[in-house]
Specification:
Number of helices of chain B: 0
Helix content of chain A: under 10%
Largest sheet of chain B: 6 strands, mixed
Number of strands of chain A: 11
Shape of chain B: globular
Structural class of chain A: mainly beta
Oligomer: heterodimer
Shape of chain A: globular
Distance between the termini of chain A: 36 Å
Strand content of chain A: over 45%
Radius of gyration of chain B: 14 Å
Order of helices and strands of chain A: EEEEEEEEEEE
Largest interface: A-B, 29 and 29 residues
Largest sheet of chain A: 7 strands, mixed
Distance between the termini of chain B: 37 Å
Number of helices of chain A: 0
Strand content of chain B: over 45%
Chain lengths: 115, 115
Amino acid sequence: NAGVTQTPKFRILKIGQSMTLQCTQDMNHNYMYWYRQDPGMGLKLIYYSVGAGITDKGEVPNGYNVSRSTTEDFPLRLELAAPSQTSVYFCASSSPPGTYPYEQYFGPGTRLTVT
Amino acid sequence: QKEVEQDPGPLSVPEGAIVSLNCTYSNSAFQYFMWYRQYSRKGPELLMYTYSSGNKEDGRFTAQVDKSSKYISLFIRDSQPSDSATYLCAMTPNAGGTSYGKLTFGQGTILTVHP
């Protein structure tokens, strides 16, 4: 199993450009999450999904959009990139909350710079 | 006040030392507590998990939860250079239903164990 994979690993965007961060998992998990990690700030939840066709906002959704057409894929779309979106982005997936033990499996991250 | 507070360090210790990492939290709904380890330029990986109050031991690692004080700790005995990483505490109600598995992270503590 590859687990959670993310592409690209690195990207530099100019202000105002758009891009899609890709995330795929092969564990048949219904629950998927997008986080961003800024230095010294831990991880902040951007969006999450509880299954194909169902998504909702997390703590910091502004400037981002998501879609979930399949169980495996959960892309994150940045429209009109701004310097404040410079960050490392992590995708994660999990089995249903309430199961024990509960664990979110993280991808390797996408390092994004907006200049 | 942040929902989860973690001393960001950095923390530098000699090989063989006992390391104590701590988080405090304010949300009494949190029931499930985790410690993630994140090596440089990698995604977080689950290290320890504890449900409700108590202690849990796994090899050189011990996780403690004191819900009455809203305080959790991770102890590393006989620390090794390979333990050098960022350690993130995370927590969730994990009640299923409306929690949706959303994790709240601390800021992370950067640990360096030098030979």
